[in-house]
Amino acid sequence: MNRKISHWKVAFIVPHTAADAFCGALENAFRPETFAITTGEADPGSSPLVQTSSEWNEVEAHGAWRIEALYLEEPEIDAIRAILKPVEEETGIAALDLSLEAVLEEDWIAKSLEGLQPVHAGRFFVYGGHDADKVPASGVPILIEAGRAFGTGHHATTQGCLEFIDSYLKRRRPLNPLDLGTGTGVLAIALARVTHEPVLASDIDPVSVKVTKDNARLNGVGPFVKAVAAKGFDHTEIAENAPYDLIVANILARPLVSLMPAFAWHLAAGGTLILSGILRTQENMVLAAARMQEIYLVSRKPIGDWVTLELRG
After folding, report:
1. Is residue 29 predicted with pLDDT exceeding 70?
2. Of the ranges 97-111, 116-130, 272-286, which is most confident?
3. Could you give the angle at the alpha carbon of 184 between the alpha carbons of 182 and 189, nearest 5°?
4. Are 143 and 124 in contact (CB under 8 A)?
5. Is the pTM of this model over 0.85?
6. What is the DSSP string of 224-292?
7. 199-203 sheet: strands from edge to edge
8. What backbone torsions phi and psi does residue 258 show, to the nearest 5 degrees?
9. Percent helix, percent strand, percent coil in the chain, to nearest 5
């Protein structure tokens, strides 16, 4: 049986110190428009580790990092080079081993999980089925089988959200939370596992909606997690359940900025907003958009090139 192309992947290697600049150029480009960007050590173990803001994780501070940008439509490689060229000229650093490849429709994220270690984030322990023997006796384990959806818990943005959720749940119990851009449902499941309150989750990708429902059932919270397909807040279920005392959204910076008026409308007075998918270079842009809606920063959590924000309306 012939498999269809799921998406297109652009990949290249740059020094860690320049990774955020190159990621920012790709994320801010309107054409071609990426729907996800990931970074990671190109040669793990070759550089010293430094502690991140997480008490559980370390990253390599130096060395070569691999950047991957994913596209739903095939981008022109010359267009990618044109986007990267100003950053190369400004930094004096060339993007090495630039490549473009088609990714076939299959469980490609699930396969990528095979070599990843479980992640601790606050009380949460995110793991794949291949690491079931490593689940600790204490804490809140979350089993994630990614399939073709995003959000395995290993990315710094998901980790930052989980740590903020853990801190939030120590202070209060959300009665009406929303997970916008749920991916594999990690954040919605984390909330439901601790509170046993209903959580509404949404994603623009119908595959993510199905994966979220499946993962919720795997983690024993199927009755508490309702997942719907929606672009932003455009769904009757989301509108009818507003306002929300807690909204978490792990997407990208530009969509966060464009959605900020909708965040303000759907967030209850005094409610908490946890945002991620934001490069450090984009933090001020997101915060400025939030202040225009009278939503203000409470705390920030940088991990690697990314930052997660906790705000209050």
Report:
1. yes
2. 272-286
3. 75
4. no
5. no
6. TEEEEE-BTTBSHHHHHH--EEEEEEES-HHHHHHHHHHHHHHEEEEEEEEEEEEEGGGHHHHHHHHHH
7. 225-229, 199-203, 177-180, 244-250, 267-279, 306-312, 296-303
8. -65, -25
9. 35, 35, 30
Cβ(212)–Cβ(188) below 8 Å: yes
With residue 231 as reference, give the H or E element that holds it.
none
pLDDT range class, residue 2, cuts 50, 70, 90: low
Q: pLDDT tens-digit profile of 127-160?
A: 877 777 788 888 899 988 755 444 444 478 889 9
Pick from 267, 260, 248, 268: nearest CA to 288: 260
Partnered with residue 203 across adjacent β-strands are 229
Ordered by where they begin, the domains of the chain are 5-105 (3.30.70.120), 153-312 (3.40.50.150)
Element (H, E) at 129: none
155 in Cβ contact with 187 (< 8 Å)? no
Dist. CA 301–CA 309, nearest whole Å:
6
CA distance 146 to 151: 7
Q: pLDDT band for position 171 (50/70/90)?
A: very high
Report residue 226 as tokens.
Answer: 């309702």
Whether 51 shows a pLDDT value over 50: the answer reads: no
Closest C-alpha among 279, 274, 272 to residue 164: 274
- Please tell me what DSSP assigns to residue 294: T
| Residue 200 parent element (H or E) | strand 199-203
- Decide: helix, strand or coil at residue 77: helix
Residue 303 identity: I
User: pLDDT of 235-284, one tens digit each?
Assistant: 999 999 999 999 999 988 888 999 999 999 999 999 999 999 898 888 99
Identify the helix (H) or strand (E) that includes residue 81.
Answer: helix 77-91
Query: And the tokens for 271?
Result: 């409610």
Residues 6+ apart with CB under 8 A from 78: none
Q: Is the dihedral of CA 229, 279, 140, 151 positive or negative?
A: positive
